[in-house]
Amino acid sequence: MDAPPTSQEGASQTRPPLFNGKYYGWWKNRMMDHLLGENPDLWGVVLDGPTIPMKNEIDGTTQVPKDRKERNAADKLAIQNNAKAKKILICGIGPDEYNRISSCQDAKAIWETLQTAHEGTTQVKKSKIDNLNRQYELFRIFYAFES
C-alpha cells in the first residue's frame, strides 16, 4: 500500500481523509478508521448496507417497509447511520470521484463502487496476479539465458 509523499491535509478527528484519485489503499484504511472512530455502527452500515425498517403485512407472513410516520427511534437511528456514513464518504472524495458514485443510494454502494474502480473485481485481481507471475517467469527464463 503506497502512501502519498506528503499529506495534503493535516490529521483531523472531525474531517474525513480526502481521496483525490491517488493512493486508494492508503485512503481506504484511513477512511475505515475514521468511520470506526466516529461510530462503529457507521462502518457496519458500509459493510452490511442500510437497515430498512420493516413491518408485518396484515396477513402476518410478508414484510413491507414502514411508512415514515410508523418509524420508532431505533428505525430513525438506523436510517441516520446510513445518511451519516454516506455523508462522510462523500465529503472524503474529490469531484472526479464524486462523478463515479453520484448515483449510489447508500454508503455500501459508494464503498463498493470505489473499491471496484480502484482495486478491480476479484477476477481482475486474479488476472493481474497471473500476468505478474507470467512476467516474472519470462524474466527468469531471459536471465537464465544471459548468465
Summarize the SSE layout with pairings.
Layout: H1 24-38, H2 40-48, E1 54-56, E2 63-65, H3 73-91, H4 95-101, H5 107-119, H6 122-146
Antiparallel strand pairs: 1-2
Helix pairs in contact: 1-2, 2-3, 2-5, 3-5
Description of the molecule:
With 147 residues, the protein is mainly α. The chain has a domain at 24-120. It has 6 helices and 2 strands. The protein has helices at residues 24-38, 40-48, 73-91, 95-101, 107-119, 122-146, and strands at residues 54-56, 63-65. Helix 1 packs across helix 2 (40-48), helix 2 (40-48) packs across helix 3 (73-91) and helix 3 runs parallel beside helix 5. The protein is elongated, with a radius of gyration of 21 Å. The two termini are 34 Å apart.
Strand residue content: under 5%
Major sheet = 2 strands, antiparallel
**How many strand units?**
2
- Please give the share of residues in helix: 55-70%
Give the uncertain stretches in residue-range form.
none
User: Which value, in Å, is the CA radius of gyration?
Assistant: 21 Å
Shape: elongated
Give the termini separation.
34 Å
Strand order, main sheet: write it out: 1-2
What does the average pLDDT come to? 86
Order of helices and strands: HHEEHHHH
Discrete helix count: 6
